[in-house]
Write a structure and sequence with these properties.
alpha+beta; Protein Transport Mog1p, Chain A; 6-stranded antiparallel beta sheet; about 35% strand; globular
Length: about 180
């Protein structure tokens, strides 16, 4: 009886895999993204501008921080810092793994971004995500003849995304 059950299970497994390879094997193509809304404005920085950000369910004032190497900056909530993340400069909360980076590396490898963050799919600049336990969302932004790659990195989507979206909307050109 036991041998019969094992043989039947093997036949069933072979039949299922003969119908096509399982979804988890091989390269998967993600559907193209076609957002309609702009996330980034990149207007000029104005020292008199007051920006509020959604942090922990509250609207809090933001303080402008300029990127140390690029003519760009963002508003951060109290407690957020500018820090080094590998070769990039990041803004956010390193200890909570909630941060945004901006680089001039215009190469985004779409084959790595098989995941999607549904809340971001409506934005034109959104290119895709990588979710390996920690989520990394990628955007490509053109401004002043340059291409910037903006990335969000976080663990807790519900906590991080409202802040990171507001930070992205607060990006300013700081020439």
């Amino acid at each position: 009886m036991r041998k019969t059950t094992i043989v039947l299970a093997l036949i069933l497994l072979l039949a299922l895999t003969a119908c096509g390879k399982p979804a988890w094997i091989g390269h998967q193509e993600a559907a193209p993204l076609e957002g309609t809304e702009n996330l980034f404005d990149l207007k000029a920085y104005d020292a008199n501008e007051k920006v509020t950000l959604n942090w922990n369910g509250e609207q809090v004032p933001g303080k402008f921080e300029r990127h140390p190497e690029l003519p760009i900056g963002a508003y951060l909530p109290e407690g957020a810092k500018t820090f080094k993340m590998g070769n990039d400069t990041a803004w956010g909360f390193q200890d909570q793994q909630i941060f945004m980076t901006v680089t001039t590396n215009s190469l985004i490898d779409a084959s790595l971004m098989r995941d999607r963050t549904e809340e971001l799919m409506g934005y034109r600049e959104y290119r895709g995500s990588i979710n390996d336990g920690r989520i990394a969302d990628f955007f490509q932004v053109e401004h002043g003849g340059k291409t910037y790659v903006v990335s969000f990195t976080y663990l807790d989507k519900a906590k991080a995304l409202p802040l990171l979206i507001d930070m992205a909307k607060s990006l300013r050109a700081a020439e």
